[in-house]
From TrEMBL:
It comes from the Bacteria. The lineage of its organism: Bacteria, Bacillati, Bacillota, Bacilli, Bacillales. The keyword tRNA processing applies. NCBIfam families: T6A_YjeE. Keywords: ATP-binding, Cytoplasm, Magnesium, Metal-binding, Nucleotide-binding, tRNA processing. It is found in: Cytoplasm. This is tRNA threonylcarbamoyladenosine biosynthesis protein TsaE. The keyword GTP-binding does not apply. It holds the Pfam family TsaE. InterPro entries: P-loop_NTPase (IPR027417), T6A_TsaE (IPR003442). Belongs to the TsaE family.
Amino acid sequence: MNQSVEFAFRSTSEADTERLAERLAAQFQPGTVIALDGDLGAGKTRFSQAVAKALGITEVVNSPTFTIIKEYEGADLPLYHMDVYRISMAEADELGLDDYFYGDGVSLVEWSSIITPILPPKYLHLFIQSDGEHERVMRLTAYGEPYVTWVNELKRMGV
Ligand SMILES: Nc1ncnc2c1ncn2[C@@H]1O[C@H](COP(=O)(O)OP(=O)(O)OP(=O)(O)O)[C@@H](O)[C@H]1O
Ligand SMILES: [Mg+2]
């Protein structure tokens, strides 16, 4: 069983959300999986855009709700941006997402809770909760290494 560690952070602006994304992106490596959840408009895509920027991606990053998966070429790592809002668990199972999860890049999965059974055993979960126009509560849960180390570092140093 994976060890899990949690950390909650209050973002009071998009700049705060960008800072969290930058802190995390600095640690990313091939096969990093970040699972994102939270209501419509919570900030899953906004966070993903900040990750893309931190990875040196200059293309515009939007919610891939209709395409489900979009690939971007970063400076060092490819980014696989997924949004599984419109598909079922069974459909997701047929997409072969493991090729992305265990691939050379970083996977960001919006609405990940729909496909929890097929997420890899180790990943970082970010749950974003709106709390006013600009305020967001960001709840990170790390399942396994290296995510546990990353989250412990955020707990120790702050965002
Ligand atoms: N502190 C904040 N952090 C992130 N986004 C914020 C913050 N404050 C305001 N916002 C705004 O919240 C909105 C978040 O929208 P976004 O498209 O990222 O949501 P989403 O979770 O991807 O929704 P969907 O499920 O529809 O894809 C953006 O308009 C962004 O400007
Ligand atoms: Mg989105």
